[in-house]
């Protein structure tokens, strides 16, 4: 069930009317890397509403930024009047699509089922389930679980040729590696092909979208439908997104950027986008926001003329964080960023936002009877010694919760604690530490 804020945000989204059709907008945004017949696809998407789908496998308890590309892509097609099917793979999640490097560790059915429920909720936040183009959630376990292995081999497997299957890029890479590939993962493309066939039969689905690294799996479905039903359907793949410096997009310090705030806080999420390089920010605006071409081109000009202002990065961070975490969380994050350096009231920050905003700061835990300003500066590592701490105070450089401390003998009390246990200690303008009071 979507919140009123989520429903309102979805209702306010729109495609850019300056494009003649959705296909041209998708291409301008850089969302089409590979496809079946392009002219037919453009005509199809410019015509009467169609049903399309994109699949998400529950291989983790949250979706990530790579999935967000697909979610926003689905929403753009829905805004063009087409009907989305959000597939969360209860069966394919038990198998796992082949990775470039090594075999996946198989999760238990109970874990996969739990993650299916979580991911369905995440997918549902980005689509509208009302009106003529209402979205529908589907789970491929519903049609694979009742099927016996014999039925699967006879009805589906017979339409696949091993010679074709081993030519798929990821399969070929794994076959040529020391790890090899198991029959389990080798069969993944058959399962995904069967998904498309089932959705074609049940809902008249004629388009599948996904990442270009999944192109072999996408075309397994188009080929299967052509063989079994004698008709042509379509697929297109979005490009893999990389940073201009060659590093992998969607990771911060080696960790994936997840959509679940428990795995990546709204503050960390916002900061990730705020740190986007000038060379990448315009492309990110195209892919990850609903901003119009006119607005993005204006921000591109700002990057060229006033890069120090980071106007495009701030707009990007605000828009994407709002899409994923909501406007209230985004505004809390912005307030936290300012409050850390005295441009707002720390007392107004909720505890989750405060902890996220200070997570990367030096920290210390002190006893409740050791709250003298000198002790705090030393314990937090902001001063090397008590004499150095007294000098910081005398020179006017000591702050607690953004309040200047003028007396080296001052002892903080319980009324000074943020959320009953935190103190933000600052030396000068830039040196911060978070102190937690025990007991």
Principal-axis shape equals: elongated
Helix content: 40-55%
CATH topology of the largest domain: Rossmann fold
Distance between the ends: 40 Å
Annotated CATH homologous superfamily of the largest domain: HUPs
Q: Note the total helix count.
A: 21
The value of Rg in angstroms is 26 Å
| Sequence stretches where pLDDT stays below 50 over 5 or more residues | none
Total discrete domains:
3
Kindly report the average pLDDT value. Answer: 93
Kindly provide the name of the CATH class of the largest domain: Alpha Beta
CATH architecture of the largest domain: 3-Layer(aba) Sandwich
Number of strands: 13
Largest sheet: 6 strands, mixed
Structural category: alpha/beta
Description:
The chain is of the alpha/beta class. It has helices at 4-12, 22-28, 38-46, 65-79, 92-95, 109-124, 141-144, 149-155, 162-165, 169-175, 183-186, 188-203, 215-229, 266-274, 278-288, 293-305, 311-325, 327-339, 351-357, 373-379, 386-394; strands at residues 34-35, 51-56, 83-88, 136-138, 205-211, 234-238, 251-252, 255-256, 363-367, 398-400, 403-404, 422-427, 431-438. It has a six-stranded mixed sheet with strand order 1-6-5-2-3-4, sandwiched between helices. The two termini are 40 Å apart. Belongs to the class-I aminoacyl-tRNA synthetase family. TyrS type 1 subfamily.
